[in-house]
Automatic annotation (TrEMBL):
InterPro entries: CrgA. The chain crosses the membrane at residues 29-51, 57-78. This is Cell division protein CrgA. Involved in cell division.
């Protein structure tokens, strides 16, 4: 009777591939950082409008909006990388 061609006993059993860095969770500071950026950006813009363009920094004028939107975009970009 012929022998079956089963697993070669010289090879090891299945060894899973190493985990890639992409599947690792974010550090613990990640979520509080992006929430802080989102809230800070929103407060920056709201403060600018409520105070009739005098605060947070009156000397730079409309650039206050750019700062607020930059903070918001930083927070949104961080949310896309959150695991």
């Amino acid at each position: 009777m012929p022998e079956s061609k089963g697993r070669d006993r010289k090879t090891a059993a299945y060894i899973p591939p190493p985990k890639s860095k992409a599947t690792q969770p974010n550090p613990t500071w990640w979520a509080p950082a992006f929430v802080t950026l989102l809230v800070l950006g929103l407060l920056w813009i709201v403060t600018y409008y409520i105070t009739e363009y005098r605060y947070p920094i009156s000397a730079i004028g409309v650039w206050n909006l750019a700062i607020g939107f930059a903070l918001l975009m930083g927070g949104f970009i961080m949310t896309m990388r959150w695991r």
